[in-house]
Amino acid sequence: MPLGNIIKLLKEAFQKPPAESVDSSELTETETSQPRESSENTDLTQKQVNETTLTQPYTETRETTQTSLPTILEEQKMINVSMLQDELQNFVSAASDVQGAALVSPDGLALASVLPGGMDEERTAAMSASMLSLGERIGRELARGSIDRIVVEGEKGYGVLVGCGADAVLLVLAGAGVKQGLLFLEVKRVVAKIAPLMA
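and the corresponding structure tokens:
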């Protein structure tokens, strides 16, 4: 092979970059693009997690609001409470020698009351529930059957406790001069008016 051809081939070989050599700038771009992609993926995942945690409490709050609204804003129940109060007020003002009345839950919570001044509503409600529980127990122990009424008689008057449906007890306070027969009749009438409002 002539020497001129060899020199020509060598020149061409030195002028062309090798096929396998990779540009350093390309290499750094490739290397840095991979972590960037993974960091972008991490950011996206983090964003999705944040969005999920942000939307979850809102959804739960909305659900609890939807379930609790019917319980809180039952119009019928609110009307019943005011009607119970009105019935008690009418009973106390219309019946002779009746000084006060309270409608109490079996747990000892006052539902409605018209009591004389100086009487604590919460204490009266708690004592009424205790009196009912004790009276029912005594009735069972003495084999007297179900209790119609519990009467406390003192020198200043009477305290009469009667059941008013399954969810309430009515306490009536009357003066010493009241006729018992008339008092029990009035109590029976007011229970007949109140019991349907408790249903």
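(Above: one complete record from the training split.) Strands lie at 98-104, 110-114, 149-154, 157-163, 169-175.
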